[in-house]
Amino acid sequence: VLPIVLKPRHRGRPGVLNDASGRMIRKLSVSHAFVVSAYYYPKSSLLGNNAIALNVVFDSVSHNLDHVIMIGTNDTEETQFVARTQVESSEACRYATTVATANTVENLTKLEIESNDHKIEIPFKVARTSAPAPVVICVSPQFAAEQWQLLVVHAHVARYFGGHIHLYVTSLVDSFYDLAVEYEKHGYITLDFWMRLKFANASKDAVEPNLHAELRNQAGAESDCLLQYKEAAAFIMFFDLDDILIPRGFNNYFDEITSLYKRHPRTQTFQYTKRELLTYNKPTVEDINIKETLGHVWFVNEEDYGKIITDPSKLNSMWIHQSWNVKKNYISRTNYIIHLQKPVDPDGHDPVSYRRSDFDEMISMKFNTSILDPIQEDLERFINSTKLPEISKRLPKKTFYFPIIYRCYFEKFYRRPKKDSCPNGEGCQMPQRHDINCVNADADFKSGPPMNPITYHYHVNTRWTKQKGC
């Protein structure tokens, strides 16, 4: 989607939240929070030994989550500690994405949140200690996704230049899911669940969290990916699926990003701007030619707001486009992200003709396209040695959900933006079809006991479920 640039959330008086227009929102006595994930680090370069990182989204109307009181337990001791927070959310959204970090006991076996003599046990994972590639590409959550061509192109480009895609999924068209599983099986990508926010038991005054969380809690997904690979990846790129980076003057992502840090050693994050490239979807995977897709020179003659690359040891939380908690971000002018924003359907139909992009032939943007030859060879090898030809017969040849979602976002956020409205797709009408099945991320949702000031909710037993519609 188009970039959304909003003001960061500022801490105000506890119990009071002002919307973007300055109006005061009603104070509530009890708030709710959903624990997205929690990670334990036996050793961490930035967080220290025996660290905990809690990724949570909470209703900030009644309480400022400046800290979280937690209890860590191992086989011999139990210790209470205070986790300090960093907020990554726009001021227009009532539910704020937050990461809380602290240090606890060695060999942690049990993690609890405590408030006013009430406790709730929170499931946690040990953070990854290795990654499939030196550079991990954290891709924002896919929902009602059907543009499988983007994954095919991005997966092979990333693999060749030393990157690994970590793809969050809320829902995919079923044949697209089968394609993604095939790429995961062969090590090109990692699929991860991304849940809609649900409370198993909520008080009557609890508002609908998805309606008040920014873009399906995308910032929570970016933070989750950062926390997963914090001690495992050399570098992390926070991209959308339609964002593709081709190294300039270097053989791989690692060397290019390393050079940036050598020239700007005090910088925490680097930002690359985007350039929209004209692209056509292909009806079958056998029709895809990566040099044809990426090697031409028809670009929109303007820069889009960019995406972030970082050394994960320098960052503890992440927003959608940047981190509000970073002091030094550098915009690199040595390269740019190729943005395949609005692919034209295989029949030549433009699915978003109401928002036309004016493409110019920009010869100066041309790179040596021979570097794409081995990527195309890898794609052809993959087709001939996997189940792709069989899956390809079932993949959608035209988009159905994409133009519906794009139009809704265009009307809600970009054509007539409301400054006091939290950006999300909850108000979009999503018509379904009997002939389209989707695979959805699902889980068992749990609620803790009522706690003051915040009641906590979480999920366990993640799984994929297939159903009609997305």
Architecture overview:
By secondary structure, this protein is an alpha+beta fold. The protein has two domains: 31-126, Sandwich (Immunoglobulin-like); 135-413, Spore Coat Polysaccharide Biosynthesis Protein SpsA, Chain A. It has nine helices and 23 strands. It has helices at residues 148-160, 174-185, 209-212, 218-228, 253-263, 290-294, 373-385, 388-392, 401-415; strands spanning 17-18, 24-25, 31-41, 51-59, 67-73, 78-87, 95-103, 110-115, 118-121, 125-126, 135-142, 163-169, 171-173, 189-193, 235-239, 243-245, 269-276, 298-300, 304-310, 329-339, 359-361, 437-447, 454-468. Strands 3, 4, 5, 6, 7, 8, 9, 10, 13, 22 and 23 form an eleven-stranded mixed β-sheet that branches. An eight-stranded mixed β-sheet has the order 14-12-11-15-19-17-20-16, sandwiched between helices. Strand 8 (110-115) and strand 9 form a beta hairpin. Helix 1 (148-160) crosses helix 7 (373-385). The two termini are 18 Å apart. Residues 1-6 and 10-28 have low confidence and may be disordered. InterPro entries: Glyco_transf_92, GTase_92. GO terms for molecular function: glycosyltransferase activity.
